[in-house]
Amino acid sequence: MAPLGLQRGGEVHCDVLIIGASFGGVAAALAAADMGRRVVLTEETSWIGGQATTQGVPLDEHPWIETRGRTRTYAEFRNRVRDFYRRNYRLTAAARRDPHFNPGAGWVSACCFEPRVGLAVLYAMLAPHLSSGRVWILTRHRLLNVDRDRDRCRAVTLRDEHTGRNRTITASYILDATELGDLLPLAEVEYVTGAESQKETGEPSALEGSPDPLRMQPITHLIAVDYLPGEDHRIPRPAGYAKYHSYFKNLVGIADSSDDELRIRFRRLFAPPAGRYASCIWNFRRVLCASNFEDLPSDVTMLMTGNEYRGGPIIGVPETLARRRLEEARELSLSLLYFLQHEIEPGYKNKPGYPGIRPRGDQFCSDDGLAQYPYIRESRRIRAEFTVLEQHFRIDRHPQGPDSYPDSVGIGGYRVDIHETSPRGETTLTWKVHGKHWTQQIPLGALIPVRVENVLPACKNLGVTHVTNGAFRVHPVEWNIGEAAGALAAFCLDRKLTPRQVRNTPRHLTDFQRVLTTRGVELKWDKPEVALSYNSYYAQVPGWYFGEADKRRP
Question: Cα–Cα distance between 254 and 272 in angstroms, integer?
Answer without folding.
Answer: 9
